[in-house]
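pls ignore typos typing on phone
calcium ion + seq
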Amino acid sequence: MMPRSFIVLLVAVGCCARAMMLVDGGDGIIETAAIDRDGLEVELNNAAKKSGRDFEVLPLCYSPTAAIVLGVGRDGKPGRKNKDDNRNGVIDDRGELGAVGSDDRCAGPLDDGYDLMLNDPNSFAISTGTYVVCQAGKTPDRYLSDRWGWFVADPD
Ligand SMILES: [Ca+2]
Ligand SMILES: [Ca+2]
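k done
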Protein backbone atom coordinates (compact mmCIF):
# COMPACT_ATOMS: atom_id res chain seq x y z
CA MET A 1 0.00 0.00 0.00
CA MET A 2 1.31 3.46 -0.93
CA PRO A 3 1.79 6.01 1.80
CA ARG A 4 -0.81 8.76 1.85
CA SER A 5 1.81 11.48 1.35
CA PHE A 6 2.99 9.79 -1.85
CA ILE A 7 -0.57 9.75 -3.24
CA VAL A 8 -1.02 13.42 -2.35
CA LEU A 9 2.28 14.19 -4.10
CA LEU A 10 1.15 12.30 -7.24
CA VAL A 11 -2.15 14.19 -7.35
CA ALA A 12 -0.35 17.52 -6.87
CA VAL A 13 2.13 16.73 -9.67
CA GLY A 14 -0.75 15.69 -11.96
CA CYS A 15 -2.66 18.89 -11.25
CA CYS A 16 0.43 21.00 -11.91
CA ALA A 17 1.12 19.19 -15.19
CA ARG A 18 -2.47 19.70 -16.34
CA ALA A 19 -2.38 23.38 -15.37
CA MET A 20 0.85 23.84 -17.33
CA MET A 21 -0.74 22.17 -20.38
CA LEU A 22 -3.73 24.50 -20.19
CA VAL A 23 -1.55 27.60 -19.85
CA ASP A 24 0.88 26.46 -22.54
CA GLY A 25 -1.86 25.40 -24.93
CA GLY A 26 -0.63 21.79 -25.01
CA ASP A 27 1.24 20.16 -27.85
CA GLY A 28 0.52 22.31 -30.84
CA ILE A 29 -3.05 23.05 -29.85
CA ILE A 30 -4.24 26.25 -31.45
CA GLU A 31 -6.05 28.83 -29.35
CA THR A 32 -8.99 29.87 -31.52
CA ALA A 33 -10.83 32.29 -29.25
CA ALA A 34 -9.25 35.36 -30.83
CA ILE A 35 -9.04 34.15 -34.42
CA ASP A 36 -11.69 35.36 -36.83
CA ARG A 37 -13.15 33.36 -39.71
CA ASP A 38 -10.66 34.58 -42.28
CA GLY A 39 -7.69 34.05 -40.01
CA LEU A 40 -8.59 30.56 -38.85
CA GLU A 41 -7.75 28.74 -42.07
CA VAL A 42 -4.48 30.68 -42.34
CA GLU A 43 -3.59 29.82 -38.73
CA LEU A 44 -4.38 26.16 -39.23
CA ASN A 45 -2.32 25.94 -42.40
CA ASN A 46 0.58 27.80 -40.76
CA ALA A 47 0.45 25.44 -37.81
CA ALA A 48 0.45 22.50 -40.20
CA LYS A 49 3.56 23.79 -41.96
CA LYS A 50 5.25 24.66 -38.67
CA SER A 51 4.69 21.18 -37.27
CA GLY A 52 6.52 19.65 -40.21
CA ARG A 53 3.95 16.88 -40.38
CA ASP A 54 1.73 16.02 -43.25
CA PHE A 55 -1.89 16.49 -42.32
CA GLU A 56 -5.00 17.89 -43.82
CA VAL A 57 -7.23 20.82 -42.92
CA LEU A 58 -10.65 20.61 -44.57
CA PRO A 59 -12.82 23.74 -44.96
CA LEU A 60 -16.39 22.64 -44.21
CA CYS A 61 -19.80 24.09 -45.00
CA TYR A 62 -23.17 22.95 -43.70
CA SER A 63 -25.35 21.18 -46.24
CA PRO A 64 -29.02 20.74 -45.32
CA THR A 65 -29.37 18.01 -47.97
CA ALA A 66 -26.29 15.86 -47.20
CA ALA A 67 -27.40 12.48 -45.86
CA ILE A 68 -26.33 10.59 -42.78
CA VAL A 69 -26.48 6.92 -43.74
CA LEU A 70 -26.94 3.80 -41.64
CA GLY A 71 -25.04 0.90 -43.22
CA VAL A 72 -24.47 -2.81 -42.76
CA GLY A 73 -20.93 -2.66 -41.36
CA ARG A 74 -17.99 -4.93 -42.11
CA ASP A 75 -19.99 -8.16 -42.05
CA GLY A 76 -21.96 -6.94 -45.09
CA LYS A 77 -25.34 -7.88 -43.60
CA PRO A 78 -28.01 -5.90 -41.75
CA GLY A 79 -27.63 -6.41 -38.01
CA ARG A 80 -25.50 -9.38 -36.95
CA LYS A 81 -24.59 -11.65 -39.88
CA ASN A 82 -26.53 -14.94 -39.95
CA LYS A 83 -28.72 -13.92 -36.98
CA ASP A 84 -32.42 -13.08 -36.97
CA ASP A 85 -31.90 -9.93 -34.90
CA ASN A 86 -35.53 -8.79 -35.10
CA ARG A 87 -36.97 -12.31 -34.68
CA ASN A 88 -39.27 -12.14 -37.68
CA GLY A 89 -38.20 -15.52 -39.06
CA VAL A 90 -36.01 -14.02 -41.79
CA ILE A 91 -32.25 -13.96 -41.29
CA ASP A 92 -30.45 -10.74 -42.24
CA ASP A 93 -33.47 -8.85 -43.55
CA ARG A 94 -33.24 -5.09 -43.94
CA GLY A 95 -35.31 -4.53 -40.81
CA GLU A 96 -32.34 -5.69 -38.73
CA LEU A 97 -30.22 -2.72 -39.78
CA GLY A 98 -28.75 -1.03 -36.72
CA ALA A 99 -29.46 -3.96 -34.39
CA VAL A 100 -27.91 -3.72 -30.93
CA GLY A 101 -24.65 -5.65 -30.79
CA SER A 102 -24.13 -5.50 -34.55
CA ASP A 103 -21.32 -3.84 -36.45
CA ASP A 104 -23.77 -1.63 -38.38
CA ARG A 105 -22.75 2.00 -38.37
CA CYS A 106 -23.73 5.52 -39.31
CA ALA A 107 -21.60 7.61 -41.62
CA GLY A 108 -21.57 11.09 -43.09
CA PRO A 109 -19.90 12.48 -46.20
CA LEU A 110 -16.55 12.88 -44.42
CA ASP A 111 -16.37 9.26 -43.26
CA ASP A 112 -14.54 6.43 -45.01
CA GLY A 113 -16.83 4.17 -47.01
CA TYR A 114 -19.63 6.73 -47.21
CA ASP A 115 -20.06 6.49 -51.00
CA LEU A 116 -20.27 2.70 -50.84
CA MET A 117 -22.88 2.97 -48.10
CA LEU A 118 -24.90 5.46 -50.16
CA ASN A 119 -25.09 2.97 -53.04
CA ASP A 120 -25.77 -0.13 -50.92
CA PRO A 121 -29.46 -1.11 -51.21
CA ASN A 122 -29.39 -2.35 -47.60
CA SER A 123 -28.32 1.08 -46.30
CA PHE A 124 -30.64 3.99 -45.84
CA ALA A 125 -30.49 7.66 -44.94
CA ILE A 126 -31.53 8.23 -41.35
CA SER A 127 -31.33 12.02 -41.51
CA THR A 128 -30.13 14.90 -43.62
CA GLY A 129 -28.05 17.91 -42.76
CA THR A 130 -24.36 17.73 -41.96
CA TYR A 131 -21.00 19.22 -42.88
CA VAL A 132 -19.37 18.66 -46.25
CA VAL A 133 -16.22 20.00 -47.90
CA CYS A 134 -17.05 23.52 -49.11
CA GLN A 135 -17.50 24.18 -52.79
CA ALA A 136 -15.27 26.84 -54.32
CA GLY A 137 -16.34 30.35 -53.35
CA LYS A 138 -18.22 29.29 -50.20
CA THR A 139 -17.15 30.56 -46.79
CA PRO A 140 -16.39 27.70 -44.38
CA ASP A 141 -18.39 27.44 -41.15
CA ARG A 142 -15.73 25.25 -39.58
CA TYR A 143 -12.62 23.26 -40.30
CA LEU A 144 -11.62 19.69 -39.64
CA SER A 145 -8.01 18.79 -39.04
CA ASP A 146 -6.98 15.16 -38.85
CA ARG A 147 -4.54 16.18 -36.13
CA TRP A 148 -6.56 18.60 -33.97
CA GLY A 149 -10.17 17.82 -34.78
CA TRP A 150 -12.88 20.44 -35.28
CA PHE A 151 -12.49 24.21 -35.30
CA VAL A 152 -15.55 26.42 -35.39
CA ALA A 153 -15.14 29.70 -37.24
CA ASP A 154 -16.24 32.89 -35.50
CA PRO A 155 -19.22 34.16 -37.54
CA ASP A 156 -18.11 37.81 -37.26
CA1 LIG B 1 -23.89 -5.89 -39.87
CA1 LIG C 1 -34.94 -10.83 -39.28
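The mean pLDDT is 83. Residues 84-86, 88, 90, 93, 95-96 surround calcium ion (ligand 2) (CB under 6 Å). more later
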